[in-house]
Amino acid sequence: VAKTSLTSPPWPEVKLPDPVEEAKYHAEVVQKVNEMIAAGQYGRLFAVVHFASKQWKITSEDLIMMDNVLEAECGDRIRMEKVLLVGADDFTLIGRPLLGKDLVRVEATVIEKTESWPKINMRFRKRRNYQKKKIIMNPQTVLRINTIEIFPCLS
Amino acid sequence: MVFLSAPRWLRSRLTDRFWRVQEVLKYARHFRGRKNRCYKLAVRSVHRAFVKATKARRQKKRILRALWITRIGAASLEHGLKYSAFISNLMKSQVELNRKVIADLAIYEPKTFKSLAALAHRRRQEGFLAALGDGKEPEGIFSRIVHHY
C-alpha cells in the first residue's frame, strides 16, 4: 500500500533498547564503578547535600555559611546525612531522591557562630509622615567540610 | 533671693549634633553629587536607599531563580532538550535537585549535567511509550474501518 501522510503518526517512533541486554549492560557498568571505587581511582569528590533547608554543592575543604543557629558547639564534627548526588571525574551517583547512608559519608566541623552584618529594614511612605527603621542581625554558623567518602556497596 | 538669670544660662543645648549627622552621612559617602556631603539632601537619599534595599531583598530571590532557569534551559538545549522537558522528566524520575544546584552543575560539572540530560531524555521516551499504550483497539468496539493489506 502506498505511504501517505496519514499512514504513520506525526510523532517520531520511539524504540527502547532490549530490556535483557540493557540489564546486562547496567550490571556491567555497576560492577566497573564498584571496582573503581574499591580501587580508589577517583580524584576529588563533590557532593550535593540537603542541609538547613537548602541544597549545597560541596567538595572537601569547603566553607559553608548558614543563616541560622546550629545546636552544636564550635569544633564539633557533624555528619551530613541527606546526600542527593555524589560525583567524581569519571562517574556520578545520582540518588532518587537520596543516596544510602552506607554509600556516602560527608563530615563537617563547626568553625564559628557569629551574627550577620547589621541589615537595615526600612519602610517609608511619602507625604504621610510614616517611616519605620529596624536593624536585623541574623545568627550565622560557618562549617568546614572535612571529607567526602564513598564505599563500594552498589548493587 | 531668687536668681532669675540662672535658668537663662543653663538651658539644655544639643552637644552631639555632629555625631547624629555623621550617622546618616556615613551611609551616603558613596553617592553622587551634593547628597554625599549635605545632610538635608543626604537624609532623603539614604532613606530611599534603605527602602530600595529592603524591597530588593525579596526580589533577589525571584531574579536569581529566573537566572538559574535561563541557564538550565540554555544548557539543556545544548543536549537537545527544552527546559520544561528536562525539569519535568527529572522530577518524574524522583531526582529532587533544585535549580540553583543544577545551574551550578551545568557550569562546573558538564559531564554530570550530560548524564542528567540523558536520564531526563530516557524518562521522556518511556513516558511517550506509556502514553501510546499497546496500539490495539479497545474491546467491544466494532470498527467500520476496512484494513487493506
Automatic annotation (TrEMBL), chain A:
Please state which protein family the record places this protein in: Belongs to the bacterial ribosomal protein bL21 family.
Q: Which spans of this chain does the record mark as coiled coil?
A: none
Q: Which PANTHER family match?
A: 50S RIBOSOMAL PROTEIN L21 (PTHR21349), LARGE RIBOSOMAL SUBUNIT PROTEIN BL21M (PTHR21349:SF0)
Q: Which InterPro entries match?
A: bL21-like (IPR028909), bL21-like_sf (IPR036164), Ribosomal_bL21 (IPR001787)
Record's GO cellular component terms: mitochondrial large ribosomal subunit
Q: Which domain of life is it from?
A: Eukaryota
Q: What Pfam families has UniProt attached to this entry?
A: Ribosomal_L21p
What are this entry's molecular-function GO terms? RNA binding; structural constituent of ribosome
Enumerate the UniProt keywords alphabetically: Ribonucleoprotein, Ribosomal protein
Q: What species is this protein from?
A: Bucco capensis (collared puffbird)
Query: Which residue positions does the secretion signal occupy?
Result: none
The answer to whether UniProt assigns keyword Ribonucleoprotein to this entry is yes
Question: Which GO biological process annotations does it have?
Answer: translation
Give the protein's recorded name.
Answer: Large ribosomal subunit protein bL21m
UniProtKB/TrEMBL annotation, chain B:
Query: Which GO biological process entries does UniProt record here?
Result: translation
This protein's GO CC annotations:
ribonucleoprotein complex; ribosome
Which SUPFAM superfamilies does the UniProt record give?
A: Ribosomal protein L20
Query: Can the keyword Ribonucleoprotein be found in this entry's annotation?
Result: yes
Q: Which InterPro entries match?
A: Ribosomal_bL20, Ribosomal_protein_bL20_C
Q: Which domain of life is it from?
A: Eukaryota
Q: Name one GO molecular function term.
A: structural constituent of ribosome
Q: Where does the signal sequence lie?
A: none
Question: What Pfam families does the annotation carry?
Answer: Ribosomal_L20
- Write out the entry's keywords from A to Z: Ribonucleoprotein, Ribosomal protein
**Cross-referenced NCBIfam families:** rplT_bact
Family as reported in the entry's similarity comment:
Belongs to the bacterial ribosomal protein bL20 family.
Name assigned to this protein: Large ribosomal subunit protein bL20m
What organism, scientifically named, is this protein from? Bucco capensis
